[in-house]
Amino acid sequence: MRHRRNPGLMMFPTPPLEGFIVVVQHRPAVARRVESALSHAGATVFTATTAAETIEIMNRYQAHLVVVDTRDAEGVFNEDVVFSAFHRGSGRICYSETFPKDGLITWARWVDIKEPAAAVVEEAIGWRQRMKE
Hints:
Layout: E1 21-25, H1 28-40, E2 44-48, H2 51-60, E3 65-68, H3 79-88, E4 91-96, H4 104-107, E5 109-112, H5 117-132
Parallel strand pairs: 1-2, 1-3, 3-4, 4-5
Helix pairs in contact: 1-5, 2-3
């Protein structure tokens, strides 16, 4: 039996980040903006406040990408988070006010926080495409 296409059925494109798991660790207001933008693009998003919590969530849910500020809520430099993501093969975005120092930029893509959350989504889509290649 052949299925006929339903001419009245509307087809919607698949969101670009559907099935993509992201951990966002940032100040609450920024985390909410980034979470909303990434979710709108189809990502499953978890938020965290500390480096330790971020690494734990990243490992538990096998995150594809982590988005962090240069420091966590306790003032800890996010180098361990970025290195953990690197070793897992996850994407890394540092969404911060200042250009990351001390090598963090070597392991993460920097997006200036003056840019809208949509810039983080664009970078996330880029990471996803590079991961598929």
